[in-house]
Write a structure and sequence with these properties.
alpha+beta; 8 strands; 212 residues; Aminopeptidase; eight-stranded mixed sheet
Length: 212
């Protein structure tokens, strides 16, 4: 899959690179009071490992990670990624046009998740997160033509759940005791999705939504 920058007038998503470590460290360490439900590396050494792990996932076709750049001041303010990519194996005698897709020949995935998202406090509750998510949603559906786009968050994270719902994703339920949480407990996970048939109406609504 081609990994290109995604951008609009508000935000640019740059394919993650080792050169982003210092800027990401600054974004992650100026103030950490809002990171309770999200793992965000706390120093440069941890950030370097975080970026190296993300790049290893990219090399293995497990994820496409990005640095989030705020266009108004050209500052790196966080990170996000496409993750949990799925290529379906169709077993029926007849399959839809374009299927099955093949990972080994660079075909786009059938299913993808937007996740591992974190933002510096100066970019939270701003247009940056919405703009970044809309860029990724548009790429997933309009360029890759995915069947399904997934979001998930700690079930306790009401702010994140509301933000996902504002993007037009549908709540699917809670996965109980699903995975370790950033604060050391075993968390329940709230699951959300948008499917291909829903995207045109979601896209139209987002086009007329307030930017902040």
């Amino acid at each position: 899959m081609n990994e290109l920058p995604l951008e609009d007038a508000r935000v640019r998503l740059e394919p993650l690179h080792a050169r982003h470590v210092d800027a990401l460290t600054e974004a992650a360490t100026l103030e950490r009071g809002t990171f309770g439900f999200t793992y965000v590396p706390a120093d440069r050494a941890a950030m370097a490992r975080y970026v190296a792990d993300a790049l290893a996932d990219r090399a293995a076709d497990r994820a496409l990670p990005y640095a989030i750049v705020r266009r108004s001041d050209e500052r790196v303010v966080g990170s996000t990624r496409f993750m949990n990519l799925e290529w379906w194996a169709w077993t029926s005698a007849e399959v839809p046009r374009g299927e099955p897709r093949r990972r080994d020949r660079g075909d786009p995935p059938d299913v993808v998740e937007i996740g591992s998202v974190w933002l510096a406090p100066t970019a939270q509750r701003s247009e940056v997160n919405t703009a970044a998510c809309v860029l990724m949603m548009s790429h997933a559906f309009d360029a890759w033509d995915v069947q399904r786009l997934t979001f998930k968050t700690d079930a306790r994270n009401e702010r994140s759940r509301r933000a996902i719902e504002r993007l037009g994703a549908r709540f699917e339920g809670i996965l109980r005791s699903h995975m370790p949480a950033a604060d050391g407990v075993v968390r329940d996970t709230a699951m959300f999705s948008i499917v291909r048939a829903e995207w045109p109406s979601v896209k139209a609504r987002l086009a007329h939504a307030p930017r902040a």
